[in-house]
Each structure stands twice: as structure tokens, then as C-alpha cells.
TrEMBL record:
Official protein name in the record: DUF89 family protein
Transmembrane stretches, start-end: none
A Pfam entry, by short name: ARMT1-like_dom
Coiled-coil region(s): none
Domain of life: Bacteria
Annotated ranges, domain Damage-control phosphatase ARMT1-like metal-binding: 6-277
Length: 286
């Protein structure tokens, strides 16, 4: 998906949030970084997807401030918050009349935990008051594809969200699916990496690999060698998060089930959903 003029205000807000996170006490450096980003924005290639452009922004912030994993503490805190809730959520799935539907709903709510955009919705409240919002016909088509022995590839997204994804992995494994979970190759925003997967127990639950990307989305030309073949070999691809949708929509020819929270008017226009609603479906239906 290409970026657009509508993306520019979000890029600027992200630049300000990121630099305040990186050097909260140094206003002069904050101004210098934001000024450098303003100059760079004038030359942005809007044919690139938003995750590809955010990579440029994240690189600039890290280069000028010397920060490393900018959201390391934030990721740890969020992972621990949801790990503390996991037993109750697991019980909710187990007693559901449709465990897979419930696991999907919960995993998509976790996509609100996104430091790349300003989100007004409270993911904690929505987890407590979860309602069934997904199209049962689409869910059934996913179940029809996730047959015993199917090779299911889950493209993960954020920290915190990855904890909720363990519920989904367990449900797929209960159907005798072979599940592989994919994380980012390097830290970017609050996206999950192999370190997060290890801390929340995902590596003990299923095979975990990294795509190699340094972008908040599976940007195909940033993937490590051989990963695209791995995607092609999968029987089912479940793409979590708006960043993965932005990176893959109109770029990946194979079938993909997208699962995320709609977080901006542009994506709302592409999906036909309102901001804040849960998206679950395949690209041809969008």
C-alpha cells in the first residue's frame, strides 16, 4: 500500500512522540531531530508503504539521539500486564461456544497496543467487555483452511499483542495445525522481536522465526533471504496488525487473512470499517 498526503501528519506526530521518548530532557535535541525529519519529509517517496517510511524515521531518531530499543521498557511492561490477565482470558476462550472466534477477537483487540499511532481506545476495557464482532462466515472460511496438518504462518505485530496471540496459537494447535509465529528482525517501535517471544513463552509453544525486517510491517524487500519462500510454502497466512496490512496489501499475491484494529481514516476507507473496529478478512474482499 502506498503512502499518501494523509499519512504525513501521522509521520510528524510519530516523530515528535519518538524524540520525546528518546531524549525527554533535551529539548534542543528534540527540535534538531524534528527539524531534520521535516527536511526529509519534503523528499519522501510516497510510493513506499507507511511502514517503509517509518523505518526511515526510526533510523533518523536513533542516529541523532543514540537511542537503542526505544520501547524496550514499554514492551516489557505491556507483556507483563497481559501475562497477568492471561489465565482469565484463557478460561474465557475455553468456555466459549466458539473458542477460535473468541481467540481471534482477543488477539485483534491486542492490536490496539500500538506505539506507531495515537489510539484513543482502551484495550484493557475492551478485553474486559469483549463482544463478538467478526463475520462468522469469514471465520468459518479461515477454519476451513486451517485443517489438521495445515502449515499456518502467523505474522506477528506488537508486544503485548503477542501474549494474546498465544491463545490463538493454542487453538490452532488444538486443530492439529503446524503453527509458525513470525516476529520482526530488529527492534522497531513496540513491535515484537524474538526476545519478546522468548519472554512471553511463545518460543516454548510453537516455532518462532524472524522475517528479518527492520520495519513495523512485513515490507517484502526488507525480508531476509528465503523468508518469502517460507511465506509461499504456507497453507494459511494470518497477518496481524495494521502495519502488516499496509506492507502487504496489493504487494503480496498469495491469500492472506488480515486481522487488526482499524486505526486511521485511510485504512477505514480501504476496509469499509470505522476507526476502532476489528478487521478480519482476505484482501480480495476489501
Amino acid at each position: 500500500m502506498k503512502s499518501s498526503l494523509d499519512c504525513l501528519p501521522c509521520f510528524m506526530k510519530l516523530a515528535i512522540r519518538s524524540v520525546r521518548q528518546a531524549c525527554p530532557e533535551d529539548e534542543n535535541l528534540q527540535l534538531a531531530v524534528v527539524s531534520a525529519w521535516c527536511a526529509k519529509m519534503a523528499e519522501l517517496d510516497l510510493t513506499l508503504s507507511p511502514p517503509a517510511i517509518v523505518r526511515e524515521l526510526s533510523g533518523l531518531v536513533c542516529e541523532m539521539t543514540g537511542c537503542g530499543d526505544l520501547y524496550a521498557e514499554d514492551k516489557d511492561m505491556t507483556n507483563q500486564q497481559i501475562l497477568s490477565m492471561l489465565p482469565d482470558l484463557q478460561a474465557l476462550v475455553e468456555k466459549s461456544r466458539s473458542p477460535m472466534l473468541t481467540a481471534l477477537e482477543l488477539a485483534i483487540i491486542g492490536n490496539f497496543i500500538d506505539r506507531g499511532v495515537e489510539v484513543a481506545h482502551d484495550w484493557r476495557e475492551e478485553l474486559q467487555t469483549m463482544a463478538e464482532t467478526l463475520d462468522p462466515v469469514t471465520v468459518q472460511s479461515f477454519l476451513d483452511a486451517a485443517v489438521p496438518g495445515a502449515d499456518v504462518l502467523i505474522l506477528g505485530d506488537n508486544a503485548g499483542e503477542i501474549v494474546l496471540d498465544t491463545l490463538l496459537v493454542r487453538e490452532l494447535q488444538s486443530r492439529d495445525c503446524n503453527v509458525t509465529y513470525v516476529v520482526r528482525g530488529t527492534p522497531v517501535l513496540n513491535d515484537a522481536t524474538l526476545e519478546d517471544a522468548e519472554k512471553v513463552g511463545m518460543t516454548e509453544l510453537c516455532t518462532v522465526i524472524d522475517s528479518g525486517v527492520d520495519t513495523p510491517g512485513t515490507v517484502l524487500d526488507r525480508c531476509r533471504p528465503g523468508f518469502l519462500e517460507r511465506m509461499e510454502q504456507a497453507d494459511v497466512i494470518l497477518s496481524k496488525g495494521q502495519g502488516n496490512f499496509e506492507a502487504l496489501y496489493e504487494q503480496w499475491d498469495g491469500p492472506v487473512y488480515f486481522a487488526f484494529k482499524v486505526k486511521c481514516p485511510k485504512i477505514a476507507g480501504h476496509t469499509g470499517l470505522d476507526v476502532g473496529q476489528s478487521m478480519f478478512g482476505t484482501a480480495p474482499k476489501l
